[in-house]
Amino acid sequence: MLAPQSHEKLLTVIDLPQPTGADLWPPEDSRRDARLHKPLRAVVGAVELILAALAVWGAFACWKAGVVPVVISYGETTLESQRYFGGPLAGAIGLGVLAAILVVDAIRQFLLAVRAKGRKPKEPKLS
Length: 127
What we know:
flat; transmembrane; membrane; transmembrane helix
C-alpha cells in the first residue's frame, strides 16, 4: 500500500505597501482620437470588391488550366479521362480564398464608412 502524500506548504507572502498617487497613470495623450467613420473607406471597399472579382475570374481560369481532358482511342474503344495538375488547382484555391477575404474586408469597410460615428465620452458619475 502506498504511503499518503503530504501537501506542500506555501511560504508566507510578504505584504508590501502598494504605490499610490498620480504618477501611476500615464499622462493624458494630447493627440486627436482616430476616427472610424471615414467616407473614403467606401472607395477602399469598392476597390476591394473589384479585386475580389478579378481574383474569382483568375480562380476559374486557373481551375480550367488545371483540369485537362485526355481521350485515347484503340480501334473501336475510346477511353476518356481527366488529368489534374496540382499547381494551377492550388492557385485556383488560393485565389478563391483571397477573394473571400477581400469580400469580407470590403463589407467591413462599407460598414465603417456608413455606420461608425464618433461616440461622446461618458461623463464620470459623481456620487
